[in-house]
Design goal:
The structure holds 2 protein chains of 2 kinds. By secondary structure, chain A is mainly α. Chain A has helices at residues 15-23, 27-44, 46-49, 87-123, 125-140, 143-154, 158-185, 188-195, 200-208, 213-236, 248-254, 264-291. Chain A contains 12 helices and no strands. The two termini of chain A are 40 Å apart. In chain B, the strands form 2 sheets. In chain B, strands 4-5-6-1-7-8-10-9 form an 8-stranded mixed sheet, sandwiched between helices. In chain B, helix 3 crosses helix 4 (106-119), helix 3 (90-100) runs parallel beside helix 5 and helix 4 (106-119) packs across helix 5 (136-148). Classes of the chains: A mainly alpha, B alpha/beta.
Chain lengths: 297, 305
Amino acid sequence: MTSATAPRGPQDRHPLLEQMSQLWRNKTAVIGLVIITFFILTALLAPLLSPHNPVETSLYDQLKPPVWHAKGTWKNILGTDELGRDTLSRIIFGSRVSLTVALVSVGLAFLVGTFLGCVSGYFKGILDSLVMRVMDMILAFPYLLLAIVVVAYLGPSLQNAMIAIGITYVPRFARIVRGSVLEECGKDYVMAARAIGARDARIIFLAILPNCLGPLIVQTTLSMASAILDAAALSFLGLGAQPPTPEWGGMIARSRALILRAPWVMTFPGLAILAAVLGFNLLGDGLRDALDPRLRD
Amino acid sequence: MKEVAAVKAVDGVSVAIREGETLGLVGESGCGKSTLGRAILRLEEPTSGEVLFEGRNILTFDPKQLRALRRQMQIIFQDPFSSLNPRKTVAQIVGEPLLVHGLGNRLERDQRVEELLGVVGLRAEHMRRYPHMFSGGQRQRIGVARALALNPKLVICDEAVSALDVSIQAQVLNLLRDLQDEFGLTYLFISHDLHVVEHVSDRVAVMYLGKVVELAAKAEIYLRPLHPYTQALLSASPMPDPTVKRQRIILKGDVPSPINPPPGCRFHTRCPYAESVCRQSEPELREERDGHFAACHFAGRVGIH
């Protein structure tokens, strides 16, 4: 009998899968997951869902109120902005920008931060001190301020905003991973791996790292929420997505002057940001509960 | 960084393990037993000295030679819970030594893993399971299978049965002895349990505060201990027969700090027979009888004989 024919019982699941099934029993996490799924579907199906072209202006439909307002029409369900562009369509297309920013900037921070944290925690010594002091320096700046500095240096664009946010998020990943790696290094299975002659890279990435995934997944999810927020903030300041790109933060910025005359123009993108951030935060909290055995029961 | 204090967990130890034998290493917690075992494997680098394996000093080995050496020496750990990677299946854990050394393809490795699991008394269907699905004794068997995967010559059993139930201890000990007969293994058996060491060892070394204080054949050391520390250790170990009365030697005080060990004989602060010479000069490990070494100025002249 070889491995292929060895019976595979239901209890033979990977421990991480086991913990993930805990997630379904956590209401907060499920709500978060539903919200995020909703936004992902919206982003994917944007051209089909949006009633109008998000960048098309219309001189006759400037600052139309939403449909439930006395002067509202079904043509523009959430009204229009000062150039007559349909708010709903812009919000729908804006979800693409926000989710891309979350994915790319957090992905960047995840890769760099995890690598630095692993190497720091495993090799310790001077390398560790050096890497961690650089991380401390980055952490010493307020996130947004540092991001503004980076964007100012690279030039304002969505791509540079993602890089800037990515850089500012590296330390949180590096620190979390380093802490977990330090803890795991004390366990005998790491020494056993060294005793059989495994190389350092193998020990770090194939033995230790899979055991640090729990806190890492939580951090990734929560970071996505703040990345969406930070990207909106950068765009609000004119340092992120450039017009006419439909971006939630940028939409708020340009309708700021209209807050008394046409408050709906900035309200809906604001609500979209709120919902997306809430979704990621709820999922993150739920994941923390599911993955941290100390919080369970 | 400034060095605040240097702990010499193991200091000036010289022991030889003969091929095919089991050398027991006993001593109380923190005396440096495990450190010695790990230094032999170069899992902790000794600051000085030499570790000779088949006549060659392995402390001078470069990384490539060291990797090749790993196939000859393996270790079984004390804690069966932390010594197995919780994210890997039994097949991955036991097969990893083969994978790392590039032995065989996947199918051959799986066959070897199955064979090894059979040797340690586990079944093939256990291969796809994760460590948390096993009991402590089963996990320790997995650890044994991993250590045997590369056909080593020397296996260091670092408190290999200390974390197990007494009934399971016997099973694992018998397994280790059967494997020794079958594969001609040499064991360094580290334990604080005198009965376990008596059961498995051919010769026994006793450590106190980073030094070997006595080394002799099993029968010699248990019947005629020469060092006062060994005598105290043996008298403290419980006897299975409650009607047998024995005089206990109760040592006073604690083990001194290894950061600042006492001058002279390291045991003089607690030794009931210490005299002025013990406070001044450190006794060497001398052959007091045939094959019976002890490090005491008054070896054989004090205590029970």
